[in-house]
Amino acid sequence: MTIDAPRADGAASGMRRVQFSQLGGPEVLEMVPLQLEALPPGHVRVQIRTIGLNRFEALFRRDHYVIAPTLPATLGVEAAGSLIEIASDVDGFQVGDRVAILPIQSPTVGTGTYATHADVPVEALVHIADHRSDEEEAATWMAGLQAYTLATKVPVSAGDTVIVTAGTSSVGTALIQIAHDLGATVIATTRTAARKSELVALGADHAIATDNEDLAGMVATITGGRGATVVYDTVGGPLLSALVDATAQFGHVLCYGAQTSPDIRAARVDVPLVALDRKSISFVDLFELVEFPDRLAAAKSYIIDARERGALTIGIDRVLAFDDVQEAHRILESGRLAGKLLLSVT
């Protein structure tokens, strides 16, 4: 089934995508004509309008991600747009449907979402409700699914206290809101005191500026000396020792990134062994969830419901034009974001 299907000749059809043919900074990203082959079984073709960007894509561009790129490499795992072609064996979707593309593959989904068009497996799609914008959808799913994965790895509920580092990031924002929705008391951290008010506005019960405040001491005061039940950390480095100190007996530190390391593969855990007595540290990735259909279905159901109840809202830092992808990656690498960074395709 097809409507105005793009021609195979990318230059003639106006189809484009971002790729890089060498490793390096944002300047290696280039816009090239896109040619798509015949649609494979189980796939759909999406005309993309909004693209969600993620920090790991900047790492991938420099070969600092867990998976090495094969050059020339494409990018992109989430976006929003409309269906223009559907394989004959696909059910539940029709040409013209507005859809969000979910990050179910790494480091790209299908042919990659940094593009005007993408061929993706139908399993990566969710319908977009009429009252939801493309921008809201492109901002939601990586952050929401990663946060849900973490928040359900060790179930939390009323009476638990959790710590969320880098609370103003998109995943941090989602973690604050989901943990709060599950009934936990949320302590969120940021580097400087200037951003503590943002954390409280996002729903954190307490905010700590790690550059000039005693993290472990403040957590002890907040929890009556017990410490945090679960810690969600994406910072790593020296902060990790303080987080372990702030963790309760039989508590868990769940790491999902290492912002202090320019290369995720070079990140290390440097914590005194005795500090881990009756505590645990583990690394959690999104694919613990998306590789299992039942868990992914539960996550999608929760996220859709939480948004409708107003319990989950992912803020948008800014929206740049598709052709400004190099500038977008400079912003990604700066780390100075308050919400999701998006590209608009016209």
How would you characterize this protein structure?
With 346 residues, the protein is of the alpha/beta class. The protein has two domains: 16-128 and 315-344, Medium-chain alcohol dehydrogenases, catalytic domain (Quinone Oxidoreductase, Chain A, domain 1); 145-288, Rossmann fold. Helix content is 27%, strand content 25%. The protein is built from ten helices and 16 strands. Strands 3, 5, 6, 7, 8, 15 and 16 form a seven-stranded mixed beta sheet that branches. It has a six-stranded parallel beta sheet with strand order 11-10-9-12-13-14, with helices on both faces. α5 links the parallel β10 (185-190) and β11 (206-209). The two termini are 24 Å apart. The relative contact order is 0.14.
Instruction: Estimate the mean pLDDT confidence.
Output: 93
- What is the CATH level 1 assignment of the largest domain? Alpha Beta
CATH homologous superfamily (4th level) name of the largest domain: NAD(P)-binding Rossmann-like Domain
Looking at the structure, the CATH topology of the largest domain is Rossmann fold
Following the backbone from N to C, one meets helices and strands in this order, namely HEEEHEEEEEHEHEHEHEHEEHHEHE
Helix content: 25-40%
CA-CA gap between termini: 24 Å
Tell me the β content: 25-35%
Count of the separate structural domains: 2
Rg on CA atoms, Å: 21 Å
Shape: globular
Uncertain stretches: 1-9
Largest β-sheet summary: 7 strands, mixed
> How many β-strand runs?
16
Structural class: alpha/beta
The count of helical stretches stands at 10
CATH architecture of the largest domain: 3-Layer(aba) Sandwich
